[in-house]
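hi! just following up on the protien thing from before. the input was this:
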Amino acid sequence: MEKTKILYVEDEPYLGKIVKESLESRGFEVRMEADGLAALPAYRAFQPHICVLDVMLPKKDGFSIGQDIRALDAHIPIIYLTAKNQTEDVLKGFRSGGNDYLRKPFSLEELIARIHNLLQLAQGQPRTSSTASPDEFPIGRYTFNLIRYELRLGDQVQKLSHREAELLRILAEHCNQTVQRRDILKRVWGDDSFFNSRNLDVYIKKLRDYLREDDSVEIITLKGVGYHFSVSR
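and the predicted 3d structure came back as:
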């Protein structure tokens, strides 16, 4: 069976060695590059299943590399690694084609979990367990029931309106992906008028409030683009 191939671009030798060896110990085949300019030729030659890109790289930054790779393959998962904490840098990563990001320092277990999650999504595999109902699925620590319009966390049950449930369904269907604002408006409200756009802002705020008990779940606003629904575990 072919190993899952990871293109890993990192210019810190010590960190790169640890991450590469850890991934290889889990059965991945890893090609590591330390130079931003070497990343795209490596991608073409290696044909990876997923890319893990540091943002701060010599000669060419990770965001630019991600854009180049995304132009060649619209579906390959891309994870950015960044030491920056500013929201704008995170948003820039998503705009440049990233599916997920990790802030340094990060745990190797979390990186591996996110890699597995994105690979499952890319292969179209369901994120639900074999015992889960087809009408419900997990969102972090929550369980979302599509039929009953319920969001559950332990013994707590939040009833959702029809539009709240439809909005959450769309976001959950695109877990760790970006959804265009206009696409949401047309699916939930039927058109992207200014009035409905303001309604969408209110509903997003409500969903954030409903999901606030789990820090691994985040609805990130990409100004002028849409939303990125991030679930890290």
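The chain has two domains: 5-122, 136-231.
The first helix runs from residue 13 to 25.
cheers
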